[in-house]
Write a structure and sequence with these properties.
alpha+beta
């Protein structure tokens, strides 16, 4: 677990990434769905994104396993006005990246 000083540093890094890349936000959550640190624009709910991301990623892991595939790199949600991408950072953490529709995902 990160100490308060480390959390502030990570939040500052998230802030810079979001601003420099014209994103809508980032949220780091544990695999149980608890938010660790985030930088989100106003009106975006950290708790909901963290919980949903962990649940979606876990469901994706079960789905690929049931399909006989090995592992899962990321879950991508696409809507008409943007993307939410949930890559697994470690066995214990998932990152939620929220991007507008014009974002270059390459």
């Amino acid at each position: 677990m990160l100490n308060p000083s480390q959390l502030e540093k990570v939040q500052e890094i998230f802030k810079n990434i979001v601003r420099e890349n014209n994103l809508d936000g980032l949220v780091l959550a544990d695999i149980e769905g608890l938010p660790i640190v985030s930088y989100l624009y106003e009106g975006v709910d950290e708790d909901t994104l963290a919980a949903a991301g962990a649940a979606i990623f876990t469901a994706g892991l079960m789905t690929v396993s049931d399909a006989g595939k090995k592992g899962l790199d990321q879950v991508v949600l696409h809507s008409p006005d943007g993307y939410i991408i949930y890559p697994q950072i470690t066995e214990d953490y998932v990152l939620g990246l929220i991007a507008p529709s014009q974002a270059k995902l390459g």
